[in-house]
Design goal:
six-stranded mixed β-sheet, alpha/beta, single chain, two-stranded antiparallel sheet, globular
Length: about 200
Amino acid sequence: FVLLDLSLCLRPSSLTVMTGGNGTGKTSLLRLLRGAMQPASGEVLLDGTPLQDLDICHTATRFASLGHQPGLYLDLSADENVRLFATVAGRPMASSRVDALLDGVGIAITDRHRPVRGFSRGMLQRAAMARVQATQADIWLLDEPATGLDVDGRQMLEQVVVGAREQGVAILVATHLPSLAAVADQCVELRVGALFNSRETS
């Protein structure tokens, strides 16, 4: 997909909401930003340094991403998934912290120790949000994170995202949720590979 003349800055403690129709390049842009794709021209900078010049282990711990799939190990429980992703990120968690994360996304105690393979789509998405938080990354790239969530789940998502922003995380969300757009620091629309209609709030 061709992305043309894009300029986007993600700052600590900020929430950017990106909208756009299917096929406009939202997923491609998110993949470029986390280094899963390389741009044919231009640069992706992380703290002023081109992403391709940084050690992959360093960049992997800076980004947390959630795409159209929850990115969980289906034969592991929600508890085990959270512990695993925290450990891989170099930030192992105490049981009390794992429980707090799962409480925060609405995974009941009776569910958090069984394989997530048996979870509903909404429960998988809730567990995936706990997985994102477990990495303690300072940049979140979320692609339609409300997939499968009911009204309560969407409220949970907003609370988690706003809470992460307050803790210094830079967040880019591809979504059409009005509730997230309403609290965003910046809103951009992607049309045929280019950004339009930027809105910034003071």
